[in-house]
Amino acid sequence: MWALIFHTGLSAGRLLSIRYDDIDGDLILIRKQGHLKELRVKSTPPVEAMIARRRERYPEDVYLFQSHSNRVKYHRRPVTIIAFNTALRRAARSLPDLNVSSSSARNIPD
């Protein structure tokens, strides 16, 4: 997911809300959320490849990033931002000198 944040420039919250129904070829619909407007984002080949891998691995999922927790086993819900940040923090432990967060992927200089 961090790589998708990097490639799309979208926030983690907006990426977590994407359903496979929102993806049409190289266009991704980002639905209106609260005060945030609806967006249409053009994907790139790396983004399309990541989406295809997720779809192949989890063919029954509704959300691009769907929770597989036992707590929501019978309800199709996206991963929460808290769960994503927890996993990211755990993965970043091996990178002691880097500040890795859900927003750091959007702030990498070209």
From TrEMBL:
UniProt keyword annotations, A-Z: DNA recombination
GO BP terms in the entry: DNA integration; DNA recombination
Entry GO MF terms: DNA binding
Coiled coil is among the record's keywords: no
InterPro entries assigned: DNA_brk_join_enz, Integrase-like_cat_sf
Name of this chain's protein: Tyr recombinase domain-containing protein
Lineage of producing organism: Bacteria, Pseudomonadati, Pseudomonadota, Gammaproteobacteria, Enterobacterales
